[in-house]
Amino acid sequence: MTTTVRTITEAEHLAFLASRPSASYLQTPAWARAKPEWTSESLGWFDGDQLVGAGLVLYRQLPKVRRYLAYLPEGPVLDWDTDDLGALLRPMARHLKRRGAFGVRIGPPVVWRTWHAATIKAAVADEDVRSLTEVKPDVVDPVGTRTHNQLRSLGWLPPEPEGEGFAAGQPTFRFWVRLTGQTPESLLKGMNQLWRRNIKKADKAGVTVRVGDVSDLPAFHRVYAETAVRDGFTPRPLSYFETMFAALQPEAEDRIRLYLAEHEGDLVAATIWTRVGGHVWYAYGASTSEKRDVRGSNAIQWRMMTDALEAGADVYDLRGITDSVAGDDPHLGLIQFKVGTGGEAYENLGEWDLPLNRLLYTAFDLYLRRRG
């Protein structure tokens, strides 16, 4: 039977996500309310009358023209293990073109390649290796390879090199800790000596970690803004996080949390957790420059991991890393911090574009590049 694609209700969308082991929080209906500068639509894939897929589409308008980039961040939520991906993606493209889309961007939620902690450590120690892409992965998923090849054959454009192309991207390289079958004791044992020592040091110093609420967001944001200055990135405004919590909290009891690590009344680290099904994400984090010796960042991550384990999650996802393992790369410390948890680096397929109107697609890309 031919697959069809049409608009579905928010309730239908949520019910489908609930039937899956997990999906990205960027594909929940609530995420549309967290992005008020975009218009949105919930899409459903139907095999006859049966809903077999869902996706949140965010529409970004081209200036002065009623044409849109249709963006499905970390989606759509489909059965990607298929030999006929065109049967799922072509009807989506037709639907989005009718809605005025000049181009489509998707982020297939498919893990392609995985590197274990020991492999990453060896790569960091090897002066001749500068990128994970130069290292043989420990796992290559055939679904990822097949999906990659099918997208190319269907006319989708592969991800641009970092820093090029449309500016609204999600990280291709990430880091996670698998929780299935774990206990707090096995989790701790899987960490490196530095992480275990720092967790113990934080506890001995009297660092406490609590789950906060929206009234604590200004305190979180102060530390987050300090982190942005120290690490050289542009911080999001407080209003962004207030909107994010207002959007996600009502959708599910455990969709979003705010954690705060404190020492003798001082906030030393703060993080935001999101959860869909068996997947928990460390979505945002911040720490102060003062009192770094009490190891609040380790304490707060340990609390989030053990809370995720207690909640029955399968994965604790620390999200983005770069692929660089070069000793002179300023981002090396980030991957070293995360690899200390004993988890794995993984590469998804990245974000793929399908131009539906080449002229408008190119114009929009140029507009975003010039805007910086």
UniProtKB/TrEMBL annotation:
It comes from the Bacteria. InterPro entries: Acyl_CoA_acyltransferase, FEMABX, PG_Glycine_Bridge_Synth. Pfam families: FemAB. Keywords: Acyltransferase, Cell shape, Cell wall biogenesis/degradation, Peptidoglycan synthesis, Transferase. GO terms for molecular function: aminoacyltransferase activity. GO terms for biological process: cell wall organization; peptidoglycan biosynthetic process; regulation of cell shape. Belongs to the FemABX family. This is Peptidoglycan bridge formation glycyltransferase FemA/FemB family protein. It comes from Desertihabitans brevis.
